[in-house]
């Protein structure tokens, strides 16, 4: 049944690096009002000026009649905090990953199946105009069958990235490294394009001179049940944050997303631009601008009581794929952190 409210009261838990994208999207959305924020570090309160600030999310939840919270906490807190919020009657917009293991992700799925509250997982790149146009083009008969999918995520993370927030290099708190913190968005798109994966062979390794329990680099090949082949290379050891590249090769042409632009290359070599993404300014511009689209879609789903958002079930394949990659690599073992 559609919600009788016209504006949602929103709280945010966690004011880390990704929080400015959420704050801006909330404050610019006519369907929502940011009424409270929370972080254990009081020095970050200025990220949401003139908004009540709390250092304990339970206190925030009790002090305000919230409709939805954004869970932007470190990975190991995604499940337990989401559980508390859902049990308190709140909808949750959950930053990726859905959980730090597939077993824990299934517990998130149990929450989704048990409670009426909605849990949306923040895979905002699904809303990029370039990716949506790629899907549209792949549905055309003349494009033919997908033969191969390639993903490249070559970014740069220096020592300070890990040292200022040690959870990023601790297996029990982060789960995995690059494949869970950086390249999971591209993995999500690859599995969305390719469908059910039949086999994976991957190498997870550490190229950075950082004392870390998790990988910073991965190379992987995928075999899909359709016969399509896939390849991913992702690293935090590049010299800069280069553009993410996603390429699909079909019977008749090549579709490439690079530098926020979707290109179509015909068999004749002729190239044309099909779509472009909105680009943000600043150091994190490579994150893209699609948080706004995802958040607005989720708010609309709450108000209209629809399922038009990225559910926990939608996000399960990304975690399953990560564990398949880790299992196939001799250098990384499976993390275990389960909350009952």
UniProtKB/TrEMBL annotation:
Domain Gfo/Idh/MocA-like oxidoreductase N-terminal: 8-107
Source organism of this protein record: Alkalibacterium iburiense
GFO/IDH/MocA-like oxidoreductase domain ranges (all copies): 132-252
Domain of life (superkingdom): Bacteria
InterPro entries named among the record's database cross-references: Gfo/Idh/MocA-like_OxRdtase_N, Gfo/Idh/MocA_Oxidoreductase, GFO_IDH_MocA-like_dom, NAD(P)-bd_dom_sf
Name assigned to this protein: Gfo/Idh/MocA family oxidoreductase
Pfam families xrefs: GFO_IDH_MocA, GFO_IDH_MocA_C3
Cross-referenced Gene3D superfamilies: Dihydrodipicolinate Reductase, domain 2, NAD(P)-binding Rossmann-like Domain
